[in-house]
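Blackboard transcription, Thursday session:
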Amino acid sequence: MLIGLLIGGGVLLILIIWMISINNRLVSLKNNRESAFADIDVQLKQRYDLIPQLMGAVKGYMDHESSVLTRVTEARSRCMQAGTISEKIAAEANMGAALNGFNIQVEAYPDLKANANFMNLQGEISDIENKLAAVRRFFNSATKEYNNGIEQFPSNMIAGFKGYKTEPMFDLGVEQRQTLDKAPEVKF
Amino acid sequence: MAYIGLQAQIRRNNARSTVILACFPLLILVGVYAFFFFTGGGKEHIEQVNALFIKTIPFVIGGVLLWFIIAYFGNTAMIRMATQAHTLDRKENMRVYNLTENLCMTIGMTMPKLYIIDSSALNAFASGIDQKSYAVTLTSGIIDALDDQELEAVIAHELTHIRNRDVRLLIISIVFVGILSFVVQILFRSLLYGGGRRKDKDNDKLMLVALAIAAVAYLLSILFKFALSRKREYLADAGAVEMTRNTKAMASALRKISGHAEVEEVKSDDVKQMFIEHKSLSGLFATHPPIEKRIAVLEQM
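(Written on the board underneath:)
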């Protein structure tokens, strides 16, 4: 009788420890993902801060290109207003397209390319684009691990209990991919 | 050649490396036991042999551990002196710095320090034993010769070595081989010079047996070390592909490096093993798998 009780107690203890470790693992996966998302914001903010400087540097050179410059500034404010992930992704894709159009127009201004300040800023923004790609990839892999943890058995039971849901990746979605696949218009 | 997927390669190599690494201390213990066996009278006195062996185990292990700790921590200083590398800062080499930083951000890894060796050879290596000392060193030759994607692949290869704790592994195996080499040298020397007082012929026989066993153990440990190195190189190539999502870049970088990797400025052979490519001897004694084979594996991924 006593042995039965002891064994039962031992099994229960092991079960409890096991559930605690699963819970802690899920929490850490969730926090990893959120921290990765915050890292994306860091890069986005750096880009927003550089863009006014970039616009300032081309003043006097590209005064006749108001449409391209306006597009960049508008894209920027749209980015700053974006809240949810889907809004951010859409705003980001738009910003990327606007900067692309801008870069193509710059090709027509050799004076600008001789300007060291401008080339510096362009280099920094281009680096931020690469960094954005890097943190997005990390965010996606953190999301993948989190989703795996949520969906796999037996951790899915604990996840359901805590209300954890499968989360989206930083993905373009079908319509936006089509928009991006279209090359930006070039007006000379 | 049979298809080996990326993740399967990584798993396989890690398993094999653990086995090979476990063989090192085992080798030392077997050597000690063999010594006692042959000098203690063989099978007839097996119980005495066993008893003696068990008594000396803690001393052997203690001695090995002590040596190990000393050599392990002294190693990083040696590497720094041997390569005469200097720090690479962001301003003078923004391209390399950014490539490295971005790769690290992709996998959420702390960025290691960057160093550069002034040499026209095309080579790179990773070093360091902990988060504070991890570093990647590149030659100025490789920075100039490779394009962005290829350089990214090379840096990713070195970062994978750091991620896999390969350098730590390599230093451990170098230390073990060093221990056995030391033992062989001591025994050899006492045999040569200690034979002055030729009163005890048995003593000489003891020395000979010890020397033979130590030599065999030393040879085997060298082979283990090389096998370990080779496996880790394939693993690092695979890891680089995983990081950059680009098989062509790594293969193309290796093609450019092949034949131009000899860094004359560095003399130490121990340090050269850590480079991305090193041609010392071939086959079982090679520290790196042949470059053609590495390219072949990459191209079928």
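Lecturer's comment: Residues 34-136+170-181 of chain A form a domain with the de novo design (two linked rop proteins) fold (CATH 1.20.1440.20).
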